[in-house]
Amino acid sequence: MCTATNLNVEQFIKEVYMLQRTLRIWGNKFSIMLNVLNWEVRPPPAFEMMPDHSLHRHPKSQPHKTRIRGDMNVKETGEPKHCGVCRTFIYN
Question: Where is this region: Disordered (predicted)?
Fold first, then answer.
């Protein structure tokens, strides 16, 4: 599109993304520290880190309920409930 209208493509590209800038950044040499005693060693943190168990994922075998109950899901208090074993009515 730029070549059809005789526009310079480089005017639309920031200098940060130019090849010359990238080569200049990666062209720097890093000094190698052969002596291990010169390495910086940070002390361990002064506090003990505790895991947050609320962030754990649920196992795949136990799906997590995501249903939001509303007003239509509330049962009347006078309605009897069924027993799951013998199927008889239970009154509160």
Answer: 51-76
